[in-house]
Amino acid sequence: SGINAEYGGGGGRLAPDVDSGPVPNPTPDMVEKCFHPTHGWGLYVCNLDAEDSDVTLYRLFAPFGPITSVRAMLDMTSNKCRGYGFVNMAKYDSAYEAVRLLHGLELATGRVLNVSFKAQKRSEFR
User: Fold this and answer.
1) Which helix (H) or strand (E) holds 99?
2) What burial class does residue 67 get, using C-beta atoms within 10 Å of its C-beta: 0-12 exposed, 13-18 middle, 19+ buried?
3) CA-CA distances (angstroms) from residue 106 to 85, 87, 102, 111, 123?
4) Which one has a higher pLDDT value, 79 or 3?
5) Is 124 helix (H, G, I), strand (E, B) or coil?
6) What is this structure's pTM?
7) For residues 42 and 56, what is the distance between their CA atoms, to the nearest angstrom?
8) Is 79 exposed, middle or buried (0-12, 13-18, 19+ CB in 10 A)?
9) Which of 15, 69, 113, 120 would be a feasible disulfide site paired with 88, CB 3.0-4.6 Å?
């Protein structure tokens, strides 16, 4: 399967997917640390541009599968993106493929995207 998703800021494109074989099952430790029963699989995204927003994150991750939430972290004074955000995806396979294909992606702005699974805080489970 190939993905040709356009970055929300314009210009940056994902290369066609090279089949890496089946998605490995998450380890019990990963399930415990990165899965939230309500929100799904948490992803941490950094090296975003100041102009990026929730919409940017949604556009980047939606081609991979169902999203339960997105949040670009904004500076309270300028209302600009602080350079990072969070995405929660409903399915592990979708989250895994998003990390695999988006981590290291060079965006149209020249920034290189960093994407990883996010360890959930225990307080987030309440």
Assistant:
1) helix 92-102
2) buried
3) 17, 19, 9, 6, 34
4) 79
5) helix
6) 0.78
7) 17
8) exposed
9) 69
